[in-house]
Amino acid sequence: MKYYDNILNKCQSDFTFVYKFSTQKNSISSKTKDFEFNCTGSASLGARKSVGKIKVVLSSLHRVITLSDNLIQILNSDNLQFIPNIKLKNIITFAVSNKFTQGASIDMCASTKRNKLQIYRIDRTNINLINEISVQDPIISIGMDEFGVLACSKTTYFAYKSNLNSDRRSTDSLQTIFTLQDPSIMACFTTITPGEYLLNGPNIGITTTLAGTSERAPIMFITQPNDFIYSHPYLIVLVKDYIHIYSYLDDQLKQQMPLKNCQTLINIPQRNTNTMLINTKDSIYLLESLSINQQIDQLLDTYRLQEALTLAESNCSSIEQRRTNSLILSTKKRIGLIEFNALNVFRALNLFDDINLDFHEIMIQIPNFLPLNSPWPDIDENMKSQYILWLNAFCDYMTKRSEEFSCQSDYYASLLKAYLLIKTREIIIEFLEKNASFISIDFHNLLFHNQLYHGAAILYSAHDKHEQTIDIWKKIVLKEYSNDDTFPGIWIIGKYILERNLDRSWEFSIAKWLLEQNEEELAVKIFIDKHQNESNDDLFNTNYVMNLLKPHPIALKNYLEDAVFKLMIETDEVHTILVNIYLDQIISKSPNDNEETRYKLQEFLVKSNSYRIQSVLHRINQTKYFKREVALLYGKMNDFQQAFHVLVDELEDFDYAANYCMALSQDKSINDRKIVAHVLFDVFLASLDKHPKEITEALLCLLGNNKVEFNFIEVLKRLPSNWPISSLQTILSRAMRTCAYDERAAKLELSLNRLQNEKLNIKLAKLKRSNVTVHEYRRCKQCLKQFYETSCVIYQDGSQVHVHCAK
């Protein structure tokens, strides 16, 4: 039992006197008295019996209501002076409402000896009867609030909902809500909240409203109460020689205190504390509860977590208040951390999520988590399961609230530290590939400790430490770093170089190193991608690269093909070497295995204009196997007669000859195309007697091909006379169209030239009529020198230049 430690004004009665005391806690401890009492006033009620009930109404009224010898009198609480003309007789008991009405007045309900229940309104000077209800039995206890009146006789509880608009002599009756069958049980009740009450029953406390309904189960008492009073959230119960304290939150007995001859319990409202005034025959005690924070601390220390949370939430009536109340938030945080440490991580996460707990608070709870850049120690199998449970919960919480937490600098580093213990190496690498740029480079030691060398390289790469990145990968390839199954392969080095613009000498050294590791394809890709120009200052010049690739013939061929067809390198050395490589491959293989390479060679000989023709021709002429290639080379030297002679007379490949004619005609003028076509036409006519049918078909196809240009007048003169007219139908139609087109084109060109000449003559005439002054101060726009001759050139914008400057 604790005693109240603040100054408190009380009014206490002694027989027919009312005394006013100020109480103050003793500064010197005493075994018998903890308070000093100083009488500040007294008043005699003039009654024959002692005071039965006294009620202090402060607020705006400042009144003391007394009941003595069935007489109610009202005094001023400041000076204990009687309020004149306010007395009520034949009163058994009374109760005062907790709600003040307008005009500084308050309602009071009184029970009379005439079995009446009367409701009065008291103001500063008057007391007025506003309602009266008849009852069957005398009322011994009354409770009143803004919802109505609860009263009880010795065996029955009644309820009345006040209707202040009804007639003062109301015919309304009290509603019976509960009846005691055992006369030995003392009828008593207390107010839980306005409109909700607890009634004393046979070893139970019955919760009810004025309507007689309740959604709450009864409280089971250990011993039948003599009286009780509610002080949130506890029920103070008076039994024989003891005071029992029940929690109204879970209906459980929380404390027992021995106290003999206890007579009354009075609730004294105080800020932040619950205080009871308890008197025995010879002593007055103050029963003061621990603060709610102390109560919660005790509950948490004994692992009564739900009870602690319920106690904290009981102070807030609305859900909105519970979301912001500091006591509830701190209690949930403490419960969550306790549950987290007890491995009840699911409940802990729900609480963390409710209060938006910062993830740093969780990190502190996990052993060895901090500092983040320190490696995990060796953890035995018994503890590892706990760590896995903690860290999985931590990661789930972090991921769920990633939008909120990801802006913090150590968010991704914290996840990495957790992943190192609970995730697979592949998942860690995926995590680093996405988020390494948000993690400090200092964490590379942590990755090295876990033999995640590839992960360390990714971290270096994210911070543009390119040399360290490549160095780690090279050591993995060379087996200097082992046991890293996350390394994707040497190709990632080439990909890394190709995707970035780094120091060119360093890039060249990496490509050279890849070549040494027999990664020819990767090296060639780098040589091609990093090529800029053919200057001697560029390390990726084709001459340097070709010398480097000579010991690697396949890589050299691939490089030259890419240099020619992708980089469009037109140097004769590159093209000639590529031709010689094709020839070497063809010679080294059997005829059946070199068709693809020979096709590539022929196509290259046709399209390329940069190889050394004489050098290639000299080599090809050393064998009779390359007759078609010889023909292509003659065509490159504009020796069309010899080229078509080889194709038609020696190889007898008439279709290829026609196709080669079209290839030679590309990008040439009309006259040059006609020359090529007529050479082939002459060769076909010369060989007509050897292969009349085949050449006739080839000639007809050639003459009917719109891609080949002919002088059809000359062609018609030289066609064999024995050809039927029907076979020449297509040729004649094309000849007519071509001649008509050429004639119209010539006339149109002549007309356009004539029109242009007329415009120029008009412009010249205008220029001749315009006067242009040239003097020694005027300067040439081109050379900025003076004019010393009378002739000059005038541009369209009017500027003048020397004649020799205009040329």
Automatic annotation (TrEMBL):
Keywords: Cytoplasm, Protein transport, Transport. Residues 1-272 form the CNH domain. Its main location: cytoplasm. CHCR repeats lie at residues 530-696. GO terms for cellular component: cytoplasm; membrane. One of its GO terms (biological process) is intracellular protein transport. It is found in: Cytoplasm. InterPro entries: Clathrin_H-chain/VPS_repeat, CNH_dom, Vam6/VPS39/TRAP1. PANTHER family: CNH DOMAIN CONTAINING (PTHR12894), TRANSFORMING GROWTH FACTOR-BETA RECEPTOR-ASSOCIATED PROTEIN 1 (PTHR12894:SF27). This is CNH domain-containing protein. It comes from Rotaria magnacalcarata.
